[in-house]
Specification:
ten-stranded mixed sheet, 18% strand, alpha/beta
């Protein structure tokens, strides 16, 4: 059994060493750590190279792309180089709890039904101080159903470990479709009844002004940047369109019957995205008052608030 960690980085010199330390000091040492630098113009690449050399880290490697690939393709490119049976995704600016790999590998290794396993997180600021913290956790492992994953999009990359065989099965299709690398894998896993969540907070997720994900404290903050908000809604819709377009090759017997309702939800969401682009309220109200297990009502409310918010001049 072999474990890989895949990290991508770009201009991450400020925080990356703390993340590297948290991987180095894991109670379960990864067999392979692949770090892909996307042509940083700060000292990120040099910091990582020196860290590997100074700590004599066998199985660790860092390379720099010949050209800037962007966040999504950099991750996919690095992912393809992983040779482990289980692959962890890693951001450049978080801090892992030292038992993260150990705990998650010991769950997934003997449970073939788990294709993707996610943990939970606490959040820290630029100075490592908690801005969102809870010690309410357990050792429970629960399956995330398809409707819950479509509504909530729970699968952020830094929380995940995936079976490499599962990655290999779908990675080329996701690349061809222009999908991001984390939530789509989770949506596909859920459609195959293989997405599970471990109720332990094993990542200190750093929130700062330069996060590539643009993560906010809650979704209502996101409407402050209207154009970015609309792009996010369109990207989210793309995940589900991909799922429906490839339904016969993805959904297991348990989920096959959900196609009709999911397809209806996609139609409603397509109308909502068009309405957001045109700042039209009526289709958004229709989404809010439509009953469909795949629709997220808090997003429906956020859409309405976004349209009602005065346009920036």
């Amino acid at each position: 059994m072999k474990v890989s960690v895949v990290m991508t980085c770009y201009n991450g010199e400020k925080y990356i060493e703390k993340q590297l330390l948290s991987i180095r000091d894991q109670t379960y040492k990864p067999d392979e750590v692949i770090i892909a630098d996307d042509r940083s113009n700060d000292d990120t690449y040099q910091i990582v190279s020196a860290f590997i050399e100074n700590n004599d880290l066998n199985g660790w490697s860092v390379y720099q792309n010949t050209s800037n690939l962007g966040v999504i393709m950099n991750f996919y490119s690095a992912m393809k180089k992983a040779s482990g049976d289980f692959v962890f995704f890693c951001d450049q600016d978080d801090i892992w709890e030292l038992s993260k790999i150990d705990e998650m590998v010991n769950i997934i290794k003997d449970r073939q039904e788990i294709l993707v396993l996610m943990s939970k997180e606490n959040r820290i600021d630029e100075n490592d101080q908690f801005i969102q913290y809870t010690d309410a956790e357990s050792s429970d492992v629960k399956r995330i159903g398809l409707s819950e994953e479509v509504r909530e999009c729970l699968g952020a990359g830094h929380l995940l470990v995936l079976r490499k065989s599962f990655i290999d099965q779908y990675i080329d299709a996701l690349i061809s479709a222009g999908m991001t690398f984390d939530v789509p894998f989770c949506v596909v896993a859920a459609a195959r009844s293989g997405l599970y969540q471990y109720d332990r907070r094993l990542v200190k997720r750093r929130i700062h002004g330069n996060n590539t994900s643009g993560i906010k404290q809650n979704r209502f903050d996101r409407i402050k940047d209207y154009d970015k908000y609309v792009r996010g809604r369109r990207m989210r819709l793309g995940y589900f369109e991909f799922l429906c377009d490839n339904w016969e090759n993805i959904a297991d017997e348990e989920n096959k019957g959900a196609y009709s309702e999911l397809n209806k939800a996609i139609g409603i969401l397509q109308n909502s995205v068009d309405a957001l682009k045109k700042r039209k309220l009526a289709p958004l109200l229709k989404e809010l008052f439509s009953w469909n297990k795949f629709l997220n009502k808090s997003i429906s409310v956020a859409n309405i608030l976004a349209v009602l918010k005065p346009a920036s001049k």
